[in-house]
Request: fold
Amino acid sequence: MKRFFLLFSGVLTLAACSADKTAQADRKAAVSNPPQVLMKPNGAYQTPPYASAAARNPTLSLPSNFSPNAGVTFTNVANNGNFIALTFDDGPHPKNTPRLLDILRQRNVKATFYVIGKSVKLYPDIVRRIHAEGHELGNHTWNHPNLANLSDAKVRQELDSTREAIISAAGVRPRTMRPPYGSLKTTQRQMIHRAYGYPTILWDVDPLDWKRPGTSVVRSRILNGTKSGSIVLAHDLHSTTVDAMPSTIDALLAKGYRFVTVSQLLAMKDASRP
Reply:
């Protein structure tokens, strides 16, 4: 009986070792072959209807190659065509950004997304969709720090990491940057422009949507502040901002504004103007 018990115990031990080795092999295989993230349509959301049948941005074939001498910092770009740039910061967000992309696609509006590097790494499929649908990707740092408080080396680390994440996700290099909080020293702006060719993109319309004042307030602030050449700041991080976009965009279109990316707006800069 004792011999049988020892033999049975040995069999159990061998089985446990074999199961443990199999589990280890499975874990290694999962690390070596991570599951592929596929872009899926956002079928759970239906965009609100247009305010009018005319509420659709025209298809525009405009250059986006701006001169490296165009300038170091921009808050707006004067032009004769009623063109404006709609920009969204701090994404991508797993729910709000796809919903916003649905809204923009229905209205044929192209926007510029200033993305956070660590979020790009988390949601590369959304970044690929942003680029695939004709929007522009801009560098908004890796961790959203106040760059004015960092050394040049730390600033470059923030920008480098985000640039590489965007390239990895979408296969495209960002051409402009936006500092978190709009905070960047003049010497830092000049350094970034020399090192990367990035102009610093600020804004002249800010609905303060990060305070979440409500959709009607976000809409009225954007409508009241926008003029030809405006760069409009918003955040796709906040659901209330995305909620405000359909009626806001429709009203801007009804006023005769046409939407372009930041790079397209910069390419319109008249060299004769200051």
